[in-house]
Amino acid sequence: xxxxxxxxxxxxxxxxMVEFALVFPLILLIVYGIIEFGRLLFIYSSTTSAAREATxxxxxxxxxxPDIAQxxxxxxxxxxxxxxxxxxxxxxxLTTDNVTISYDHGPGIAFPDAGNCTDIDGYDEELNLxxxxxxxxxxxxxxxxxxxxxxxxxxxxxxxxxxxRSQNARTILSNxxxxxxxxxxxxxxxxxxxxxxxxxxxxxxxxxxxxxxxxTDTLTPTITRTPTITLTPTTTATPTxxxxxxxxxxxxxxxxxxxxxxxxxxxxxxxVSPDSVRLISLSLGWPNTSPAAKxxxxxxxxxxxxxxxxxxxxxxxxxxxxxIFEGLESFRVLxxxxxxxxxxxxxxxxxxxxxxxxxxxLLFLNPVSNETCSASISQLYP
Length: 382
Fold this sequence. Notes:
The chain folds into two domains: 7-171, no CATH class; 253-380, Immunoglobulin-like, CATH 2.60.40. The chain contains three helices and 13 strands, in the order H-H-E-H-E-E-E-E-E-E-E-E-E-E-E-E. The chain has helices at 2-59, 78-88, 125-133, and strands spanning 99-104, 141-150, 162-171, 253-261, 264-271, 277-285, 295-300, 303-310, 314-318, 333-334, 339-346, 357-366, 371-380. Strand 12 and strand 13 form a beta hairpin. Helix 1 (2-59) packs antiparallel against helix 2 (78-88). The model has no long low-confidence stretch (mean pLDDT 78).
C-alpha cells in the first residue's frame, strides 16, 4: 500500500515538471515581450522628447549666451540646440551625430540654400547672417530631426533592429515687438485737515435794579399834518428809428488777379449778386510785337467759347457783333456767388518787358432783371 502511494506521488511530480517545462518558455516569452515593448516605447518617447525640446530651444527668443558681449540668438547656437536634445534623450543613447538641425520656410518648401546648423563647437555666425538676410530665401522655421537605433536585447529570428526617427519643427521667434500699456499711477493718500472747534466765551449780563423811578407828567404835543402837492409825470413818446435795407444789386461782378504762363494768361472774376449772369461781350488788348502773338483760343472755366486766329493789338467777341461766341450758352453763365476763370491761349510765348499792358473787359447780363454789369483789368506782363 505504501509503495503504491509513493509511486503515485512520483508520477504527479513528474507530470508537474513536464507541465512547467511546457508553460515556462511561453511565460518567459510573454515577460520578455513586455520588457522589450516597454523598452521600445521608452526609447521612442525619449527620441520624440529630444526633438521637441531641441526645437523649443532653437525657436525661443532671447539671448542664448548671456556671458559674452555680443547677443547670440538661440536658433544659431548649434551646441545649445544639440545639448537640449541630448539632455532629453539621454536614455535613448543619443549622440551629436543623431541630431540634424535645418531651417526652412514651411512644410514641403525646400530651398537649395537651406541652412544647416553644422557647427558643433558653439555659435554659427554664418548661419545667423543667412537667416537674417532674407536673400535669396527666407528661413523662419527650425526643423530638428533625431534618429536613434533600436536593437532588441535578445536577437530573435524575424525581429531585427530598426531606426526610430522623430522630426519636430517650430517657427523662430525673433524680433518680437512687445506693446504694453503703462500702469496707472498709484493713488496717493492725502490727509484732510480736521476742523477743531474753539469755544467762544459769551458774557452773561445780570440786571440789577437800583431804586424805583418817580413818574413825572409829560405833555404830549399834537402833530398837525400839512398837505403835500404830488406832481403827475407826463409820458413823452420816444421816436423809433427804422432802418431801410440797401438794395442788393442785380448784377455785380468783381475782378480778381491775372496770371501769365508762357503762351497763356488767365483772369478770374466773381459774381457777388444772388442771380446768375451771362457773359455777352469780351474785349482783349495785348502788345503788337514781332513776331506777333496771335490769339488762338478763349475758354471760360475750361469750356471753349471762341477759337480762331486773331491778330494783335485788339480783339472783341460778343453775342450780337461781327465775331460771335462759340459753344453752348451755358458755358458763359456765371451762377450767383460763383467764380469764372477766363483763359487766353496765344500762338507763341507772350513777350515781356515791352512796357505795354494786357487789358480785358467783360460785359455780363442778368436775364431776370435785364441789368448789365462789367469787369475790367489792365496789367503789365510781370
